């Protein structure tokens, strides 16, 4: 299985998982606060609809996407809020319907592209396989917020490798996300154990900057859904320990992150 199919398969897994999760939400539960400050379950769903809408446009209509991009503000957080605003006004049933239709269309559009097909994105153009990884990571992160809101656990699955690969692609994002300069040495390698015991090595061969441990926990780290102290991850040196303190697999402010729970977690 090549990287494109693995990536789009992982995207499909995460989309189904999020759909199954929100299918159970009803009534006032839509307004349940999540760990993201100021965001309810409704905000989480609306945000994912907006992200998958533009990802689908990038895959199907690159020139239309570029035109849309040119119209956006330079304020990242303002763009996020603007995209969500009309979706937050939808009824519960309509928001779920919009998520199902949008996510399905986006998965189909990305699946139709070769793995190395370059598509436009918010800052840099990237291969379609990497955009699949980005979508998988977004759905994983916001699904975790909804699970935390309802205190639900999740069984880890091997599709998490796609998120770990994306973590390597985005390994420098956390520094500006915390208002810091990107260091000169950005080499990094992950030596990971997958959910069913697989051994995965991702990143730069030969570097001393190594993160070792659980692949699932790495996904929780780079989405900033768990504090490093609560995860089964070991830093190979102080440089990596510093990277783990700021790691994030998305643009924009990383925020303060989660507080330590005082226990090792998997989901």
Automatic annotation (TrEMBL):
Domain of life (superkingdom): Bacteria
Protein name per Swiss-Prot or TrEMBL: Maleylpyruvate isomerase family mycothiol-dependent enzyme
One Gene Ontology MF term: isomerase activity
Domain Mycothiol-dependent maleylpyruvate isomerase metal-binding: 14-147
SUPFAM superfamilies xref list: DinB/YfiT-like putative metalloenzymes
This protein's UniProt keywords: Isomerase
One Pfam entry name: MDMPI_N
Organism: Myceligenerans indicum
